[in-house]
Specification:
The chain has about 280 residues and is an all-alpha fold. Helices cover about 75% and strands about 0% of the residues. It contains 10 helices and no strands. Helix 3 packs across helix 5 and helix 7 packs across helix 8. The chain is elongated. It starts with a helix and ends with a helix.
């Protein structure tokens, strides 16, 4: 549930900030009559994201026939790669997004094709929606039991929280440091990806690709993976009640290597105020 909430909160907020940025800039240049294109593009992007989610769910059934553990391992490692790339890209390119969006709108304005702002909204929303589908697919493949309504509620809560944050930011909440918000959520995404990576190693052990080992520790008496709190921490931070030495080593290695690569430069650089709006989209 924790991972589902984090993913939907982060991706939905990025989409909301992109739409807010386009609306704000159109208002600034006196082109409010083109708001409808933005709304249409955003709605179509959302519809396309839902269609992609339905398609993935439809085809995941036949794929499982190839071997549940094989498919789960492939999906988990795909999600790890995409999450890592996503966090890395955001840390290095987020500051230039605001200017890029404004240049694209100015280009559409010069050519009298402001309907293209709808395309900007569509691509932005669909990109975030597609990433959400892939990330959540990886989380579902990681789950050892049916996700149930808890994950659905967490996803709805994440989207709702993102919508509220987006509204507050563009209606007077500009004091909120988006740079800090995205840094914190990036740290959480790295923990989430480390947990997925550790689970992928466990899948490879169950497939016989890697050797099976006795658990490094057993904290099931204290906090079970299947409990509400344990499930939340497992999804968000990669908690395991009985990890093998390989799973624990993979988790630690991912945190150290990826954490240093992605966050090392960010913590050395000062965060300018303009980075707040830059983090609105990608």
């Amino acid at each position: 549930m924790g991972g589902t909430f984090l993913i939907t909160l982060r991706e939905a907020l990025e989409a909301a900030l992109l739409l807010g940025l386009v609306y704000t800039y159109l208002d600034k240049i006196g082109a409010r009559q083109h708001f409808g294109w933005v709304s249409l593009g955003g709605a179509l992007g959302l519809a396309a994201s839902i269609a992609m989610g339905v398609t993935v769910a439809y085809f995941s059934g036949p794929l499982v026939d190839l071997g549940p553990d094989v498919v789960a391992a492939a999906v988990i490692f795909l999600a790890v790669i995409l999450l890592t790339w996503h966090a890395w890209w955001m840390q290095r390119h987020a500051r230039g997004i605001s200017g890029e969006v404004e240049r694209r709108i100015e280009g559409a304005r010069r050519t009298q094709r402001l309907w293209m702002v709808g395309l900007i909204a569509f691509t932005g929303v669909f990109r975030e929606g597609a990433e959400t589908v892939i990330f959540l697919w990886g989380l579902m493949a990681e789950a050892t039991s049916a996700a149930g309504w808890g994950s659905v509620a967490a996803g709805v809560a994440g989207v709702g929280s993102a919508a509220l944050l987006g509204w507050l930011i563009f209606r007077g909440g500009r004091r909120l440091s988006l740079a800090r918000f995205f840094t914190v959520t990036t740290v959480l995404l790295i923990f989430l990806a480390a947990g997925l990576f550790s689970t992928g190693i466990g899948r490879l052990q169950s497939l016989g690709v890697l050797p099976m080992m006795a658990p490094l520790w057993d904290t099931s008496w204290l906090l079970s993976d299947s409990s509400v709190v344990g499930s939340f921490l497992a999804g968000l931070l990669g908690y395991r009640e009985r990890p093998s030495p390989l799973e624990a080593a993979g988790y630690a290695a991912y945190l150290v290597v990826v954490g240093c690569v992605i966050l090392g430069g960010a913590w050395r650089r000062p965060q300018p105020a303009t980075a707040v709006r830059a983090g609105a989209s990608r």
